[in-house]
Every structure is written in structure tokens, then in C-alpha cells.
Design goal:
alpha+beta, 3-stranded antiparallel β-sheet, elongated
Length: 232
């Protein structure tokens, strides 16, 4: 068995102990022989290896700047949610948000300031969603939000909550407070039958474009054609 003990210096020592019976000439057990080996260094190495593996796994699935899921990870989660919808006859809302006039921030105040804005936006999005909702940085100043179990009546309201969370107050930066808004395209999977992720992304991108064209800082819902409900 492995046993842990506190050393005088405060460190924890881990010992691996092996015990075997000691028989006499007649085969009767007359005692026990125990061998103890200090394996603290081995345990430390195992813990460090696990830490490095966990860190690499996190970096592989998350955006380096915002710590949100990266494009590949959020798309993988979208695929899983759509597959679950088919199994359980569920509905998922997908939101594609794009910061309004973000290029002006980078051009006039510099990319470090733009990075500050992106990090704060990511934090506000995470605070505004439910614990089981999924948020990813889709690319540049675009964010993809997957809302499991969200049907049409709630999707636009939820999207508008996220929009308000971004626009509610200026973002503090080293160059001063910056007011930023976001335009959001919204699509509800059930309204479109059983769409693929590619179809979802195409339609929600069109809805985002409509929100931009209508004046920005607003949400637009992707609605299927009346004579062709569903993409399948």
C-alpha cells in the first residue's frame, strides 16, 4: 500500500510499502517482513506530467486570448448538440455575434486595446449565459453561442440579453473606457427541421448580416421560407 506522511519541512512524503509473511521451518507464520520505499519523487513527476497534459489539452481546445473554446471546439460541441436533438427531438438555438466597428478600435487605439476589449466581451458573455450553455470565439471579433434546449420563443430574448450585456456599460481599457456593441444572428434548429452544422452556420451568418444591415446593435432571427420549412 501507499502511505503519505508529513515531513518536518512541511512536504508530504509518499512511501510504497510491501509486506510479506515470515514463516518458520514448519511453515507457520512467525512474523512479517516489511519493505518501504520512498516514491515521493515518482509521485511528483506523475503529478507534473498530469498538469502538463491537462494544460496542453486545454490549449488545444481553447482560444489563447479569451480562454473561450476555439473554433474547432465550439463546432465540435455544436455537432454533438445537433446529434442529440435528433435522438431526443430537442431544439438548440445558435447565436453568431460580431462586434460592431471593432476594426476602428484596432486601427485607432491599437491591437493591445482591441485584445482588452475581446477579453472583456468574452467575460461578459460567459456571465450572461447559463452554466451549460457553450460559448466560443469563432474568429476575430466573432463569437458563437450554443444554447441547448432553447426553442424559438426564448431564442431572441436570450440573444437580446447577451447583446445588452455587451452594450450595458463601457469597457475599461488602458486607453480609457470604450463603448462597444454587438450584432447577433439567431437560428433555432427545430424551425429548420434537422439541419447540419454547415447549414446552421450559413443561415445564422445571413441573419447576422441582416442585423448589421438594419443598423447594428440588434438581433435578427433566421426564419425558414414558409413554403419550405426545414432544410432537409
Amino acid at each position: 500500500p501507499q502511505r503519505r506522511a508529513e515531513e518536518p519541512n512541511g512536504r508530504t512524503r509518499c512511501n510504497l510499502t510491501t509486506k510479506v509473511p515470515l514463516p518458520d521451518a514448519a511453515g507457520q507464520t512467525i512474523g512479517i517482513i516489511g519493505i518501504s520505499r520512498n516514491i515521493s519523487a515518482l509521485k511528483d513527476a506523475e503529478a507534473e506530467l498530469k498538469r502538463v497534459r491537462d494544460e496542453l489539452a486545454f490549449k488545444a481546445a481553447h482560444d489563447y486570448l479569451t480562454s473561450l473554446m476555439n473554433r474547432g471546439a465550439i463546432l465540435e460541441m455544436l455537432d454533438r448538440e445537433l446529434a442529440r436533438n435528433i435522438r431526443e427531438d430537442g431544439s438548440t438555438a445558435v447565436l453568431l455575434g460580431d462586434l460592431d466597428h471593432f476594426k476602428n478600435i484596432n486601427d485607432t487605439l491599437g491591437h493591445p486595446t482591441g485584445d482588452e476589449v475581446l477579453r472583456e466581451v468574452a467575460g461578459r458573455l460567459l456571465k450572461a449565459v447559463r452554466p451549460y450553455d457553450l460559448v466560443g470565439r469563432f474568429g476575430g471579433e466573432e463569437f458563437l453561442v450554443v444554447l441547448p434546449g432553447c426553442a424559438a420563443p426564448d431564442a431572441l430574448a436570450r440573444a437580446d440579453q447577451l447583446r445588452e450585456a455587451i452594450a450595458a456599460s463601457p469597457i475599461p481599457t488602458a486607453r480609457g473606457p470604450i463603448h462597444i456593441t454587438i450584432s447577433v444572428g439567431v437560428i433555432v434548429s427545430r424551425d429548420w427541421g434537422q439541419p447540419t452544422a454547415e447549414e446552421i452556420l450559413r443561415e445564422v451568418d445571413s441573419a447576422l448580416y441582416a442585423a448589421k444591415a438594419a443598423g447594428r446593435n440588434r438581433c435578427s432571427l433566421a426564419v425558414p421560407p414558409c413554403n419550405d420549412r426545414g432544410l432537409g
